[in-house]
What does this fold into?
Amino acid sequence: MHLLSRQIRFAIDPFSSNEEMGANSYCAKPTAEGLAFFFTLFVELKSEINKDTGFVVNVAEIDKIIRNKAIGYFRDFVKNCSKTGFEQFAKLLNKIWQTIENDFLPAQINSLSLEFMPSRKITIKERTGDMLYFSEKFEFAASHTLWNTKFTDEENFKVFGKCANKCGHGHNYIIEVAIQKSTTDKQLFAADYEKIVDKNFISVVDHKNLNADVDYFKKANPTVENIAEFAFQSLDGKFESAKLDCVTVWENDRTFCSFRRD
It folds into this structure.
């Protein structure tokens, strides 16, 4: 089974009655001449590939379907909706799913995600379900040394290489925290969510020597794998009316690890 994802970027100008399609889909298509709402819609499809074309679905066809059938929903929503909470956007994605689900057959929609800004998005994984997944990315800086006291010095340097330098080294980490909640439960407020992540994790590790300043890493090596698990444990059960789904930590743009309960 293959999973194919496609991003469709577009802008909605709530102040203009005219829509300019433009010609740069990498930026935004439709585009805007000034201040506008910018969105990125992620369409994830699942299917075996077509043996003749090598495609799950031709991405040009995905673009065409979304621009012809989905963006109008966003335009009406932005211009006419009195409530613009994440729950309302999740219901909008449900409507779009039901509108386009038969346009990719035999491929099926696996998920739809809407990115509001570069580090915030919501996701739905069912056509009619009331569950939404909300995530944001945060950054923190920390230093660490990878070392196991059970190993000899030679073994530590053999296993951990430069990361075994006892003076340590630093990273500018990125962490993405995903929660899941029902659209019928209490409204999700991003500011409250951010304060929970900051209080229970970011403030614990930011600008810290992980080995020396964080008790958890006095017993566990501060690898990206263990940092992801520590973050999950630190945040699990802290979100009112929501459940922690997954935590992903990037040590750099080539190395990252996710941790979830299952």
Summary: The longest strand covers residues 131-144.
